[in-house]
Structure formats: C-alpha cells, structure tokens
Here is the input.
Amino acid sequence: MDRVGRKRSIAGLFLLGSGLLLMTGLQENIVGLLVVIMIYFTCATALYTCLYAQAGQNGPRSVAAFATATDFGMAVGPLIAWA
Here is the structure.
C-alpha cells in the first residue's frame, strides 16, 4: 500500500474484491471456493484499513462521517438482503 499509494490501493482493492465476489459464483469445487473466499476477506480487510487511514488523514470530521456510514451500512445491509 505504501509503494502504490492509498488512492490507487483503494481503487485496486475495490476492483479485486468485485472480481473475487464474481469468482465465488463460478467455483465448482469447495477448495477453490475456500481459496477465493479467504483472498476476498484479506482484500476486504486491507480495503477497510486503507479507507480508515484515508479518513484519518482528512481529519476528525471525516473519521466521524466514515464511522457513521460504516455503522449505517452494517445495520441496513442485512435488512436489504432479507427484503
């Protein structure tokens, strides 16, 4: 992340995560599915870290807005999935 830069890392991690989610539907065996899911979770954790670091660099108001948006997404996401 440090060599590429935060903004490029965020864009790359979003693209990689999206591709990995698409690949989960194409997996025919359990081992391939587990590998893709493990890589996806690693990618998601790195993305979350980059986004929080970017918000921290922008100041406390940005961190508060990011935390609120994250909490709202975690609350509404399951409701949308079950609707």
In short: Residues 17 and 44 are 7 Å apart (CA to CA). The chain has a mean pLDDT of 91. The two ends are 37 Å apart (CA to CA).
